[in-house]
Amino acid sequence: MDTTRQLTPLDRFLNDTQRALDTVFGAPGAQRPNPSRDVAQIELDDTERRHASGLMRINHVGEVCAQALYCGQAAVARDETTRAHLLAAAQEETDHLAWCADRLRELDSRPSLLNPVWYAGSFAIGALAGLRGDGWNLGFVVETERQVEAHIDEHLDSLPPADARSRAILEVMKADEARHADHAEAAGARVLPQPVPTLMAAASKVMKAVAYRI
Predict the structure, then answer these.
(1) pLDDT digit string (tens) for 58-80?
(2) String of b and e for 171-208 (b: at least 16 CB within 10 Å)?
(3) HEC readout, 7-58
(4) Comparing C-alpha atoms, which of 6, 105, 95 is closest to residue 53?
(5) In terms of CB atoms within 10 Å, which end of the chain has fewer, N or C?
(6) CB 96 within 8 Å of CB 28
(7) Are 59 and 93 in contact (CB under 8 A)?
(8) What pTM does this model have?
């Protein structure tokens, strides 16, 4: 007898609600070791520490948004394979979220005060993207991840040279984001038409400017 129980819409709603609460207010744990665990802690001066904190707060917000986007997309995905792909990527983003939170604590800093707003807005955007169909759903993943790769590259260039611990985290995050995009392309992602990528980049620019400080 097959004992596998299909999740009901109520089950999924409760799961999504719990994930949102854990992401915004909790302390999600990583399944993989922190990439900076064996990297020496080098003391940064106040200016370097503030700048590194701002950059890692942006990356933490990016992971909050990634959780929300993927969960919003998975909530309306029509194909179980697509839903599984999105939730698997979300789990790796949970690792990123935990690593960034760890680094912020090491820098005596904090996550963005606007994380509930970032999460709610991103979940809504993910759900709207997913309603267009799974091909567009996966296309949104590709565009999101390619833009995240680009901003991580900017942060790797901008980090204080002594901040090897943040650098170690970002390098693994970048590799994961590239793999998520590649997998989505292989699964049948459609290329998003303009002006969608431009609007996504503009929204990301606003988020980064705000999250650096707040």
Answers:
(1) 999 988 888 888 888 888 887 88
(2) ebbbebbeebbebbbebebbebeeeebeebeeebeebb
(3) CCHHHHHHHHHHHHHHHHHCCCCCCCCCCCCCCCCCCCCHHHHHHHHHHHHH
(4) 105
(5) N
(6) no
(7) no
(8) 0.87
Q: Are 129 and 140 in contact (CB under 8 A)?
A: yes
Q: How many CB atoms lie within 10 A of CB 142?
A: 21
**DSSP for residue 5:** P
At residue 26 the predicted structure's pLDDT band, cuts being 50, 70 and 90, is low
Range with the largest mean pLDDT of 9-18, 73-82, 172-181, 187-196: 172-181
Q: Which amino acid is at 117?
A: V
Q: What residues have CB less than 8 Å from 16, skipping those under 6 apart?
A: 71, 75, 123
Are 107 and 55 in contact by the 8 Å Cβ rule? The answer is: no
| Tens-place pLDDT, residues 89-105 | 778 888 999 999 999 99
